[in-house]
Amino acid sequence: MKGKPVADAITIRAKEEAERLKQNGVYPKLKIVRVGEREDDLAYERAAVKRMETCGILCEVLTLPLDIIHESFIKELKAVDEDKTVHGILLFRPLPKQINENEVKFIISPEKDIDCLNPINVAKVLEGDKSGFPPCTPSAAMEILKYYNVNLKGSNAVVLGRSMVVGKPMAMLLLKENATVTICHSKTNNLPNICKKADILVAAIGKSNMISEDFVKDGAVVIDVGINIDDGNITGDVKTQECLNKVSLITPVPAGVGSVTTAVLAEHVIKSCKQINNK
Question: Is 9 among the domain residues?
């Protein structure tokens, strides 16, 4: 299940909506807030800026020093949130230790919080409220499943990972589509046996090549969310080549879920812009 055709389809939708908004005098805009120069942040930033340009969405980057004090960071973030020309805010995490994320998550307004940091959006994901913004990565995984016509209703889905960024929201999104969901993690007993019962297995545990064919049922659909660096190479959580003979569908790494994430980000900016402007 390659990500590019999925991303292309979402990009076309976002571009058309952006053009419609601009014809009505509304210019959708993303603001990226980055602290420091982490290479993974920079890589995602480059991809996001390029995607926004393709979609006709304005994009600005606010770069802050790694040693910025908490109070100064809050002031900067509040200024971004209060900027009426900005419709969506993407804040790269994790933040440096001197910045209290428990305070930060309340600063970005829910309507501009396009990657689900604010607890109000977390609650909306839990409730299935469509006005909220699920995190972009699990949303991208769902877009791939829908694009490739994977039947979710009544399917046994196992999500391997329990983070607020991927695992938990992924489980909620699957549940919303009437899958029966089990959440597992690194401390789960008999992990391979549980995973092997899954019709749909989502690997989001962040351990390179952890999932072997022993975790996978014949004919299963596998979504590999993991992006790891192993001996200088980008790897997923799944041993893809080893599992190819057992699965019916599987996402590669790279060129899988990650390639769809920036397209979802663009669509979220459009959605936030429309909601803020009642369009």
Answer: no
